[in-house]
Specification:
This is DUF6774 domain-containing protein. About 80% of the residues lie in helices and about 0% in strands. It contains 2 helices and no strands.
C-alpha cells in the first residue's frame, strides 16, 4: 500500500473514526478504542521485528 498524501490519510482516518463513533455506545466505543490501540501496537511490534530480522 502506498499513500503519499498525509493530509488525505489523516482526513480518511478521522472520517472513519467519526462514522464508527456514531454507531457505538460510550462503553462500546471505549472498548473498541482499546482493541484498536492493542491492534496498532501489535502491528508495530511485528513491523519492527520484520525490519530487524530482514523479512518483508
Amino acid at each position: 500500500m502506498k499513500n503519499c498524501d498525509p493530509l488525505a490519510l489523516t482526513t480518511a482516518v478521522n472520517t472513519l473514526a467519526v462514522a464508527i463513533a456514531e454507531q457505538l455506545s460510550d462503553d462500546d466505543l471505549g472498548l473498541t478504542a482499546a482493541i484498536l490501540v492493542q491492534l496498532g501496537d501489535t502491528l508495530a511490534t511485528i513491523a519492527a521485528q520484520r525490519a530487524r530480522c530482514g523479512k518483508s
